[in-house]
Description:
The structure holds 3 protein chains of 3 kinds.
Chain A: H1 2-8, H2 12-15, H3 21-60, H4 63-66, E1 70-71, E2 76-77, H5 80-111, H6 114-129, H7 132-157, H8 164-167, H9 177-201, H10 205-213, H11 218-247, H12 250-255, H13 274-281, H14 287-324
Antiparallel strand pairs in A: 1-2
Helix pairs in contact in A: 3-14, 5-9, 5-11, 6-9, 7-9, 9-11, 10-11, 11-14, 13-14
Chain B: E1 31-42, E2 45-56, E3 60-64, H1 71-78, E4 88-96, E5 99-100, H2 108-114, E6 115-118, H3 129-139, H4 145-158, H5 162-165, H6 178-190, E7 196-200, H7 208-221, E8 226-230, H8 234-240, E9 243-251, E10 258-267, H9 268-273, H10 278-284
Parallel strand pairs in B: 3-8, 3-9, 6-7, 7-8
Antiparallel strand pairs in B: 1-2, 1-4, 4-5, 9-10
Helix pairs in contact in B: 3-4, 3-6, 4-6, 6-7
Chain C: H1 2-56, H2 61-64, H3 79-111, H4 115-127, H5 132-147, H6 151-176, H7 179-187, H8 192-220, H9 224-227, H10 248-256, H11 261-297
Helix pairs in contact in C: 1-11, 3-4, 3-6, 3-8, 3-10, 4-6, 5-6, 6-8, 7-8, 8-11, 10-11
Amino acid sequence: MSVTTTSHTPTLQERLRGKGGHADRSFRGVVYVSGFVVLAVLALIALTMFDKSRAALSHMGLDFFTSKRWNPPGEQYGVLSYIWGTVYTSVIALVLAVPVSLGIAIYITQVAPNWLRKVMTYVIDLLAVVPSVVFGLWGILVFAPHVLGFYKWLSRTFDGWPVLGNIFGPNPQGRTFFTAGIILAIMIIPIIVSISREVMETTPQTEKEAALGLGATKWEMITGAVLPHSRGGLVGAVMLGLGRAMGETIAVALVIGSATGQITLNALTSGNSMPAVITAEWGEADTLKKSALIAMAMTLFVMTIVVNMTATAVVNRSQKRMGVR
Amino acid sequence: MTSDTHLPDQEVTMTMDDAPAAGGAAPAAPAVFDLRSLEVYYGQFRAVRDVSMEINRQEITAFIGPSGCGKTTVLRSLNRMNDEVPSAKVGGLVLYHGADLYAPGVSVTEVRRRIGMVFQRPNPFPKSIYDNVAFGPRVNGIKSRSELDGIVEESLKGAALWDEVKDRLKSSALGMSGGQQQRLCIARAIAVKPDVILMDEPCSALDPIATARIEDLMQEIKSEYTIVIVTHNMQQAARVSDRVAFFTTEINPESDRRTGVMVEYDDTKKIFSNPSDERTEAYVTGRFG
Amino acid sequence: MSTVLTAADLRGSRRTWRVIKSKLMIGLTLLSFIVVLIPLVTVIGTVIAKGAGIVFRDFPAWFTTDIPVRTRAEGPGMGPAIIGTIVITAAASALAIPIGILAAVYLNEYGRNSRTARTVRFLSNVMSGVPSIVMGLFIYVVYTLRFGLSGFAGSIALACLMLPVVIRSSEEMLRLVPNHLREASFALGTRKSRTILSVVLPSALPGIVSGSLLAVARAAGETAPLLFTIGIVTKGNWDVFSGPNTALSAQIFRNASAVQAGPQERGWGAALTLVAIAFLFTVLARLATSLYQRRQAR
């Protein structure tokens, strides 16, 4: 008899099954798809870049990377000097930006009172808001013309010195590797500061107090406790800054001076970088040249990806280590 | 014989459409829950084992015991809140009006709509008082303003909160006192018209006056709801409950880890005056725990 | 006796030297901040000094008139670039912000610490390092080659740059939503999707808005991805989907390498306009953050 009853009205067990789970399932579907957009875009970038750069790469072979001869009318596309320009300007930027950024991060996290900490963080963030093209405009119209006198002084002062004499070579110009390096340094300071700050803030109070309790001065506490504790994260921060500097385009394109074939230590001379060349020469490029420029972009892509992956891994690892503590 | 005859007073609880378990498996006693050899694992760790008990309708059942004895774990397995802990696994049977809550295909949302929960710390949403109470009904598809107004008023009255908040229904729930927030959470729970309300140490974050109000409230609403409460406060269990289950921990000889077990389950009077297990006696007389 | 004195003296002087060194080095860290203030103040000061003139001359001509067709011409006209920046950035935001928030929901509410989620999180960080010019060329290849120059092509490129930023900041905000709110909702028999939409996202909203606005501010200033994708025009084009367009950043770049005073002045004016827009969004983001903190404090 209970059998006939159950055939008419659903049992509690059946009602507990519920209905309308499809709303949950479709939402989950949408969310998963959104998560995978990142994978899709990155894969698509790699695929299309590779596909479109094949023409130039098969035309040039390995010479594409090892030759510095960039002569579009002669269909010669060697990017070595531009790789040099990208690397050299980025290294100059790091040399200038890293000490300054670490100094700021140390002051903000270890020295400044609370209110000043907020103000300084805000000011540094403002620097990140200024678009790179505005730095470029300022660099080409204001900075480059005015800095020439300083460059001449550098060149005179270090004339004949080992290394520095080569870096600050004779007959300086306004738009140079060094100008690009300085502008890049200004632009990567905010990112290095903000990550270093986060890393330094995780130094346990107990370690700092232990150092001070042993009679260390504040600076000894910083070099003895804070910096060793945050070393991994700081390396990551610097590398993220490097990645940003290598990919920066517009500001560099405006102030680097656009000279081909320059592979020199002389920072006070014009050169060119990969993104700057792509920007400048895309407009009038034929098919093969476009392929060469895309191959250049792919080279840049691979370089920045390697730097960024390493940086992310380093930061993650150091954060995990600190989380375990 | 129809299954209806098993169910003496089906019009009392609000979700009575569930209670007359039309299925053949309906129990003879007025039990809401029938646990058979329940055990819960977190990963490899067995938090509680071998709990078998029946929880009666329109009574207040209290779970007491020292911390780590698995009482909250058992409570959370009654409305499948343990599903939200990724590593948790439940074994044994949890029958709710005879229906297996862990049978394949059972929807946790259907389960939780019938079996509500109030948590240790008051956890109102960062919304207005009104929106907190109306949240559940809205989720269940009620859109009509007047209907919602009615439910909100009825639920707040049910939680003895209406007179205090009726003039500020639109202000944020986070501006209330802790005791008011907890009563709001009770109002929010009863707004979906559940059959059972699970309470996980609902007064542990409250002062004595707020605690007393919640206890009074439990007495008032137990004619409509079955209540299961976890508490670490023995006086509270003695004051409010009809039946008490005492849990404790046992060391597993092989793994040296502690697993919760239910020692004794009986009328409250019996547990506090004349318990049959000496561990219970040690605990309720304050010699242990 | 005298050796003991010397030792004590030595220790004393070394101690003073250590204190002096500490003060000196900390002074240097403060100096490094001041060093950075110089370019910041100079850049913003120059932009205002050289740009304000043309922006406010014959107000509101700067905002309403077309860009002079002859590059070397003097005088205002940046309306089309302002229109372009607005429509391109808006379309980019409409693409990147919803997808980014949903991807963050995937990471924090579904994927959590699974291998897939960790991979997505890692690649999202990697994606934030892809140079903007690479993104521009990529969109040129997959979109512009097929559908021609348009504002929307630029929007897709900007959206790709914004996406990882939105994902990262949104995920951080979702992580801050206390778990007891999710439990409260689940205990009422609310589905996971509804819990996320009605409880989790509203709680994290101000923080998510703040992060998204910062991404918008950053995107509005991007130049490189637009150069290959949107073309250039001198008349306003409100239609983001068809026809070439222009933007403030592209106009600054174009005018920066000019030698005549006219285009240079327009470059400064465009820079002032762009910086003002970027700052506006940053300030809005700050407001959202403080709103969030006030709500958290209660």
